[in-house]
């Protein structure tokens, strides 16, 4: 693979951040559950594509580490609150707006776009015991409350597909939000989309709820068009092919040190030209009949990656072995696979654990970018 870090060959290699905020007619944005800023970056990229500016009026994130990364990448954000979001918004959708909510509304002003990716631990398929009725699921409804507070023109809520099965106090979480947004005058639609088909180099699927005020672009039509869009699909080589020979100095470009057993497993795959590890090379608990072929598996240059999670630094967590080298992915490579260009600065993450968690939990920017382009620059009718 090429080691030439050229933005022409590798678009994510661009190291100079665009001046998103410098353009006229800015899109005003509120980003809740902001993480390190994947959704905000996607909105900024869409605004740039449309020749518009970008103005973060408010971002809210509970954890300081991703908030620090957000702050570094969006230094012009008017307000970044490192807070428990339930202290800012009421979880009772029937209550009148509080004094604090009215003050937030006045501070934010006219809002174009509200985005948010509520935490998904409560309804992850890895959490079988509690996922269907977990207090975390109530956080999803905060997006409807925020819509009451700010009256944005467009609302995008991102989550894992399993959110469709979630309940809080016996009521389907997504249905509650859809119904409330409808009563507020929005057209609402939701769908599970493949991010690979939107130009993200991994097999990631996400549930999207999209709402616009009645009379604007219809969310159902937008999601229909999105599903058949002509976005270029890209593979692993497109994302990280230029990073093969990047020095491993520093936290961002250094892969974790594998165990001796895992080195042997990776060397076997490279020597044999295989991508799936035979059972007899696996740990005893992974032998026998199983459906875990991706575990200890090797990535292929001409395919999309497996969904990036916080476990991307361990081949025992999934198909995270580099295609050509006996190691797992670096944080830099994982960030690229999530769609973050090199100008996005992760330096404020000072531990490997914090870096892995925020990259694994991030929303690929391309999702918000493609959605907002569809909403704000819809395809002409046939």
From TrEMBL:
PROSITE patterns: C5_MTASE_2, SAM_MT_C5. InterPro entries: C5-Methyltransferase, C5_MeTfrase, C5_meth_CS, SAM-dependent_MTases_sf. The active site is at 120. Keywords: Methyltransferase, Restriction system, S-adenosyl-L-methionine, Transferase. It comes from the Bacteria. It is an enzyme of class 2 (transferase). One of its GO terms (biological process) is methylation. One of its GO terms (molecular function) is methyltransferase activity. Its EC number is 2.1.1.37. The keyword Transferase applies. It holds the Pfam family DNA_methylase. Belongs to the class I-like SAM-binding methyltransferase superfamily. C5-methyltransferase family. PANTHER family: CYTOSINE-SPECIFIC METHYLTRANSFERASE, DNA (CYTOSINE-5)-METHYLTRANSFERASE 1. This is DNA (cytosine-5-)-methyltransferase. It comes from Kocuria atrinae.
């Amino acid at each position: 693979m090429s080691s030439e870090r050229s933005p022409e060959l590798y678009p994510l290699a661009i190291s100079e951040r665009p001046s998103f905020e410098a353009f006229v007619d800015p899109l005003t944005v509120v980003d809740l559950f902001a993480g390190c800023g994947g959704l905000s970056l996607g909105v900024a990229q869409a605004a740039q594509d449309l020749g518009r500016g970008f103005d973060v009026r408010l971002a809210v994130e509970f954890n300081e580490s991703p908030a620090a990364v957000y702050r570094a990448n969006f230094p012009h954000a008017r307000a970044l609150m490192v807070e428990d979001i339930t202290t800012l918004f009421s979880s009772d959708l029937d209550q009148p707006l509080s004094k604090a909510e009215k003050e937030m509304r006045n501070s934010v002003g006219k809002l174009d776009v509200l985005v948010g990716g509520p935490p998904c631990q409560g309804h992850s398929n890895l959490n079988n015991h509690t996922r269907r009725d977990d207090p975390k699921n109530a956080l999803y409804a905060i997006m409807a409350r925020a819509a009451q507070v700010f009256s944005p023109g467009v609302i995008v809520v991102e989550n894992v597909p399993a959110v469709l099965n979630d309940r809080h106090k016996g009521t389907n979480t997504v249905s509650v939000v859809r119904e409330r947004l409808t009563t507020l005058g929005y057209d609402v639609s939701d769908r599970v989309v493949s991010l690979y088909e939107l130009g993200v180099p991994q097999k990631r699927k996400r549930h999207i709820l999209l709402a616009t005020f009645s009379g604007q672009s219809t969310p159902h039509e937008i999601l229909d068009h999105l599903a058949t869009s002509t976005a270029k699909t890209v593979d692993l080589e497109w994302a990280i092919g230029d990073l093969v020979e990047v020095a491993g100095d520093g936290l961002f470009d250094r892969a974790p040190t594998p165990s001796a057993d895992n080195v042997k497993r990776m060397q076997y795959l490279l020597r044999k030209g295989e991508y799936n590890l035979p059972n007899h090379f696996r740990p005893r608990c992974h032998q026998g009949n199983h459906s875990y072929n991706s575990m200890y598996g090797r990535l292929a240059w001409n395919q999309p990656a497996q969904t990036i999670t916080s476990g991307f630094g361990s081949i025992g967590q999934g198909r995270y072995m580099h295609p050509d080298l006996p190691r797992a992915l670096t944080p830099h490579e994982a960030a690229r696979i999530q769609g973050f260009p090199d100008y996005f600065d992760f330096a404020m993450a000072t531990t490997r654990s914090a870096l892995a968690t925020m990259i694994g939990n991030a929303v690929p920017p391309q999702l918000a970018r493609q959605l907002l382009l569809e909403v704000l620059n819809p395809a002409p009718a046939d």
